[in-house]
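Lab notebook: predicted structure, single chain.

Context: the supervisor wants predicted structures on file for every construct in the current expression panel, including those that have not yet been purified. This is the next one on the list. No modifications to the sequence; it matches the entry in the shared construct table.
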Amino acid sequence: MERLRQKSLVALKQAKKPWLTNIHDPIPLHDWRKQNAEANLILVHPGEDKLPLAKNENIYLLIGPEGGFSAAELERF
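Prediction complete. Output recorded below exactly as produced.
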């Protein structure tokens, strides 16, 4: 994680960005979902293409590992 944070700092300086990208420690997906239970999600997963009808402006785009999300992860969503 420290290496990623250092890379973010180098990118900030090279691109002369006005903000530093925050690199969070990894947490289990189910914990993240509990913290963001009301969030609208767009999942990038093999299968049928369809978009939800979002009512608010907070939409999260989750991209799973190669091969897609596990059955347990999809069940949580």
